[in-house]
From TrEMBL:
The gene is ENDOU. Its EC number is 4.6.1.-. Keywords: Disulfide bond, Endonuclease, Hydrolase, Lyase, Manganese, Metal-binding, Nuclease, Repeat, RNA-binding, Secreted, Signal. The keyword Lyase applies. Monomer. Residues 1-18 form the signal peptide. Residues 23-65 form the SMB domain. It is found in: Secreted. PROSITE patterns: ENDOU, SMB_1, SMB_2. It catalyses: ribonucleotidyl-uridine-RNA = a 5'-end dephospho-uridine-RNA + a 3'-end 2',3'-cyclophospho-ribonucleotide-RNA. Residues 75-348 form the EndoU domain. CDD domains: XendoU (cd21159). This is Uridylate-specific endoribonuclease. Its cofactor is Mn(2+).
């Protein structure tokens, strides 16, 4: 078995993100201008709060990390500290005996486009499904089949499906993981109340927008956790529970992996290649064995603190980076942007 390369190298070799997310306009000559809803991206003093800054905002308009004004800046050290607290708070995560993983063949980044099945066995040999009876797991799983995976087909939720979104948010907010996250963001002046925080989470994750046509056919939650198919390829699909359930049904065929994280307990990180009922995923990174609230918390943290940027965290003493992207073509509230995607991009021993 060949040694896996660092995940950041593998992902950069395996995906051309510029093909998926077009570069927004520049802040050149626009720093600290007034908000104008007609602009696709912004350069005002609060654009990072709302996740709608132009890509070059920080280099042209700001000398601070996080928000453009230092009183509300979230530092790298603070991100690493809160991510360690969230890591320790995840008591709902899988224990070692709950999952038996069979990662098999590790390939090089140059081979990810080959679409060759190099692993004859499933990725998951065993999962203790008692995990799925826990309230946050059960609420999460109820959401997974509420979407049409093909972009271009509008999503229309029933009253029950909308209620399932509220149930999921209610259950995760009862956990120590999300209480840690809210306490941190409240202290950082991001939210004045827990209800404001929950309302914003619902909009940023479950709000619908158009990814390929005039139809409102996508959301951050659908893309990241459930997965989509666009132009004949799998996009998103960064969740181990979804993977396991689809593999169990014979709908996912695990092909190989290019990275296996340094953690000797769960959650771990795996970057893999697979076929999803006829469509190929060239590089898909996912936490393994984490609770739904853990992933939701870290991705939300990074989207709020580092929208469109690399978010450097620490888990169990190991560095880890997450990349998020806002959806630039539509907004909610006072110019806030929806989550387009979020995924792990790097981790080193």
């Amino acid at each position: 078995m060949r040694a896996c390369v660092p995940l950041i190298v593998a992902l950069l070799c395996g995906l051309a993100w510029a093909d998926l997310y077009s570069a927004p306009n520049s802040c050149q000559g626009r720093c600290h201008e007034a908000f104008d809803r007609h602009h696709p991206c912004h350069c005002n003093d609060r654009c990072q709060e709302f996740g709608n800054c132009c890509k070059d905002f920080e280099s042209l308009c700001s000398n601070h990390e996080g928000f453009s004004y230092s009183s509300d800046a979230i530092t790298k050290e603070e991100l690493q500290s809160i991510s360690e607290k969230i890591y320790r708070a995840d008591t709902n995560k899988a224990q070692k005996e709950d999952i038996v993983l069979n990662s098999q063949n590790c390939i090089s980044p140059s081979e990810t486009g080959d679409q060759v099945d190099r692993c004859p066995e499933p990725l998951f040999t065993y999962v203790n499904e008692k995990l799925f009876s826990k309230p946050t797991y059960a609420a999460f799983i109820n959401l997974l089949n509420n979407y049409q995976r093909a972009t271009g087909h509008g999503e229309h939720f029933s009253a029950q499906q909308l209620a399932e979104q509220d149930t999921f948010l209610r259950e995760i907010m009862r956990t120590a993981v999300m209480k840690e996250l809210y306490s941190f963001l409240h202290h950082q002046n991001r939210y004045s109340s827990e209800q404001e925080f929950v309302d914003d989470l619902k909009n940023m994750w479950f709000g619908l927008y158009s990814r390929s046509s005039e139809e409102r056919d996508s959301s951050g939650f659908e893309h990241v956790f459930s997965g989509e198919v666009k132009k004949g390829k799998v996009t998103g699909f960064h969740n181990w529970i979804r993977f396991y359930l689809q593999e169990k049904e014979g709908l996912v065929d695990y092909y190989s992996h290019i990275y296996d994280g340094p953690w000797d307990s769960y959650p771990d990180v795996l970057a893999m290649q697979f076929n999803w009922d006829g469509y190929y995923k060239e590089v898909g990174s996912a936490f393994i064995g984490s609770s739904p609230e853990f992933e939701f918390a870290l991705y939300s943290l990074c989207f709020i603190a580092r929208p469109g940027k690399v978010c450097q965290l620490s888990l169990g003493g190991h560095p880890l980076a997450i990349q998020t992207y806002p959806w630039d073509n539509s907004t909610y509230g006072n110019g806030k942007k929806y989550i387009a995607t979020a995924y792990v991009i790097s981790s080193t021993q």
